[in-house]
UniProtKB/TrEMBL annotation:
Family affiliation: Belongs to the cation diffusion facilitator (CDF) transporter (TC 2.A.4) family.
Location of this chain's protein in the cell: Cell membrane
PANTHER family: MITOCHONDRIAL METAL TRANSPORTER 1-RELATED
TM spans (from-to): 7-29, 41-61, 73-93, 113-133, 153-171
Protein name: Protein p34
Lineage: Bacteria, Pseudomonadati, Pseudomonadota, Alphaproteobacteria, Hyphomicrobiales
Organism, as annotated: Prosthecodimorpha hirschii
Membrane topology category: Multi-pass membrane protein
Amino acid sequence: MTTTGKIAFGSIVVGVVVLGLKYLAYLWTGSIALYSDALESVINVVAAVAAFIAVSLSAKPADRNHPYGHHKVEYFAAVLEGALILIAALSIAREAWGAYVDPKPLNADWRGLAVNVAASAINGLWCWLLIGYGRRNRSPALIADGRHLLTDVVSSVGVLIGVGLAVVTGWQVLDPLLAGLVAINILWSGWSLVTESVGGLMDAAAAPDIQEKIRKAVSTHGEGAIEAHDLRTRHAGRVTFVDFHLVVPGGMTVSDAHDICDRIEDAIEADVPDSIVTIHIEPEEKAKHHGIVVL
């Protein structure tokens, strides 16, 4: 199992532990807000399982049916997680409305709040690890899982403050109102996650800073060529696909043109890890006099 796979599996273990702690907090307090927090943790576990499966599949090498690899499967996991977040938000909103219409007294058991604090701390540490590792290794599934957990942490902090105030002040209405705010926050997180993941499935271009690195590599290491144009990029999980046309003098030999391509490819792969570069060679009469000028 790869390091990425181990981290994805760790998310399942962490999710189960946090779910147990948050449900225990709900049993001790009877708070509908803490119940909504526990319900979101159920989604966390399901999403962690989906992320683990996606990461495992994306690590498979390219084959005859998938010559570009299996990297995009991580986007499907991210879309699924976004959909699950939306379902959780609607379930929480329903419970919050029921508690608002028919409020129930809270049990001022501070053990429940303490357990929820511990669960939130575990989630906070784990989401920091997931997002950091996911960004370094360009794993959409791990980043999505980490961002979901971060939303959970923010919601939990708000819930803990509100439930504490409800117990101290006796304003029971704070409990369902906070649960409703949690639902709204989760809805926003789920929508953002789905739209970003769909962008990956639709072959959205690489970020501007990555495109600038590619342009600089071509311009600096393309000595002997004239220009490059029609640069295209797209992401598929951690892999960045790059292709463009490189214009060279008409009399240049294939071997010399190939050497230039090798230099450019090495430079791009050094600046943009896990990139796959395709270069189309054209003679100087095909120059468009725009795009990337070779220094």
